Amino acid sequence: MSYIIPARDIDIARKQEFRSLAIESLIVRALALELARNRYDFVIRDLMPQDLGLPNWGINIGPNSWISATINRQQVVGIYKVMQLGLNPTASGISFRNSGSTMAIFNLESCYGGLPIIKNLAQALVSPEAREVLVRMVGPSEIHTFPELGAPMEGYFSEPIIYNPRDFMTIALTTSGASDYLVLGGFVCEPKGITVI
Known about the structure:
This protein is of the alpha+beta class and 197 residues long. The protein contains 3 helices and 9 strands; from the N terminus they run βαβββββααβββ.
């Protein structure tokens, strides 16, 4: 079972490891499903909102299901992180389901860090000069805990959430409002020529 790790708790090298794990997991799954003969017949590309039936990332999300989509018959999809870009986030959790079975549930609140404590100060400090003061106060590695300042909340999954071809994906939020602006980090593994040559 996968768990979420706040981005503030891991360095850049570890973040790259999560990306690499997601890519390798997709290739292994796609080979097992015989979507191509060998790993060099696949293209790995960034997950786009259109792959999930969305017009774009970060649409304002209410308390109902956010994404419901059927995965393309020649694609394997892997999601390895979630980012919250909203100015007043209310999402406390996110769940990933496949045809009604829950694959993973994550507590997003653990990734917000010091946001509630300093939110009013962050809102008051809108100029670039004030941002620099805040960076000096909390340190450059902690500035990402303030979405108001343009840096997202990020949470990395210890294991990627992987959907097979034709899986029915549902991603739902636990939220009290409609001001959440989420982006999923992931990849699509598909045979060459489906989307990219």
